[in-house]
Amino acid sequence: MRFLFLTTGSHVTVYAIAALAHAVRNAGHEVLVATNEPLIDAVETVGLPGVSITSKSIRHFLATVDAPDEMAVTGRGLGRMAAATLARLRELAQDWPPDAIVGSSMSYAAGLLAADRDVPFVRHIEYLRIPMAEIDPVAAEELVPELSRRGLVGLPEPDLVVDVSPPSLRSSSAADVHPMRYVATNPQRRLQRWAYTRPQGRPRVLITSGTHHRMLAGRSLRRLAEQLTAVNAEVVIAAPTRVAEEFGATADDIRIGWIPLDTVAPTCDLAVHHGGATTTMAVIAAGVPQVITPPNTHTRAIADALANFGAATTIRAPHQADHELADVLATSSRELLADSRYARQAQALAAELAALPTPADIVRTMEALVAAA
């Protein structure tokens, strides 16, 4: 069988679909991943065959929308991107006819292409609290010409919905959602011993703000790290090279640079970050409590869901100076490290994820869907 994966967004959405795509290949099927040119390197990094369907990034399409509402910008921008990539996708499907199309949650071209090809459409909800109920209607409005040409009055309904959210935090209430265990995926390098072992006799705190968001400037990041080491914590900071250089020299109890989250997160006692989707999911899977300072609507929804469950605390500081935010994050970190209730709730979420069907289990469901088509 042939499965065409469509992924939309940033590098993290590629990492999010990798586990399911690899499970499909490991079951003996063929896989192609279609995405924007700027994401092809991420597809290659996770060891999957990729095809570019547009030279433009998602930011290009979002920038074409003039609207004050974040959900309107997202929905219209993603709708425009779907429309712009359909011709290339139809050409790809002609050259390489798929038996099923698996689209990440915001890949609206996936359903349209599946309707064109009359093959099953799988919608993959690849991380937590994606605001589909708000974005889908806006994307549908943007795609009215494409829908009308196909005789559709709305977005194509998926034949299968796969959701990696922990059941306690799931926003979709549809009875036909198929839960799947989240498997953290990120670029890999040779590991040193500290990365997969816990420090003896002291807590370890992970700090990260992902690839694109800047949570704290270098001096304030150092201020946060030093307040944590002052209470005997070891600090590991996942940061790109430019941030590590800005941070400067480190002591023995602070590490900064490339950090493999899938390996390091399970060795930590706390994670401090911006609420990015894949960071959050990797930390949830590791059973680690979180301090989150979310910069936008989606990350706020993620942070609030975790805080309401008791596995995190949310710091909303849109107008705070950098050094003030560092102090607030340090205070919250000390509080969570001292309160075992957060760790218990985080471990409960990890147990929920671990009990869900594996990507290999979902592949069998997808095989049956194709066989019945």
TrEMBL record:
Domain Erythromycin biosynthesis protein CIII-like C-terminal: residue ranges: 223-369
GO terms classed as biological process: antibiotic biosynthetic process
Highest taxon of source: Bacteria
Domain Erythromycin biosynthesis protein CIII-like N-terminal: 85-210
MF annotations from Gene Ontology: hexosyltransferase activity; UDP-glycosyltransferase activity
Keywords, in A-Z order: Glycosyltransferase, Transferase
Pfam families linked: EryCIII-like_C, EryCIII-like_N
InterPro entries: EryCIII-like_C, EryCIII-like_N, Glycosyltransferase_28, UDP_glucos_trans
This protein's record includes keyword Glycosyltransferase: yes
Membership in a protein family: Belongs to the glycosyltransferase 28 family.
Protein name in the entry: Glycosyltransferase
Organism for this UniProt entry: Salinispora pacifica
